[in-house]
Amino acid sequence: MPTTPQPTRTTRTKAQQREETTRALVEHARRLFAAKGYAHVSLTEIVQAAGVTKGALYHHFSGKDDVFRAVLEHVHGEVAERIADAAPDADPWTQLVAGCRAFLTASTEPGIQRIMLIDAPSVLGWSDWRDLDAATSMQQLEAALTQLVDDGVIVDQPITPLAHLLSGAMNEAALWLARSPNRDRDLEDTMATLTRLLQSLRG
């Protein structure tokens, strides 16, 4: 009776090698981009830090901007996880406020702030940067606001413009907080102000 061919050890090893190479390039590129900024990091530095050749890099990425996009996607995913984990068992209102705090806290960390809010718009272009943001934190914000409208917690209104207004305000606040000489104090003041703003939406 014929049997289904099984993947060979060589095939699995090559797949694992590709995954390991990609992961090493993204991890080391992220560290370099966070520390020095996109403009001051070369491909040579990235491949030397990752312990691979430029040929290996070009096998996985088209160039430095493509590596940066992979790093940015990883950063966005990390921030999204922090938002989702902020208050998973709480009521929707508490989840919204906790998620906003998680976003502001994460995005004011120097490495994340440099990659996600400073370098990303210029490297990817405003449109691509907005599309990536819309697929992660903006999507979470819209989902939270939609739930609160459905529950009658906040006044029924168009969600998309509201989400863009709140997201823009938080992005600007994150940039300000990252340069603050007293970030912990200013974060608390920002959250107090944002919470009052959110409270005004309640029905």
Automatic annotation (TrEMBL):
GO molecular function, one term: transcription cis-regulatory region binding
Keyword DNA-binding: yes
Low complexity biased stretches: 1-14
Record domain HTH tetR-type: where: 19-79
UniProt superkingdom: Bacteria
Pfam families per the UniProt record, alphabetical: TetR_C_41, TetR_N
Protein name: TetR/AcrR family transcriptional regulator
Organism encoding this protein: Phytoactinopolyspora halotolerans
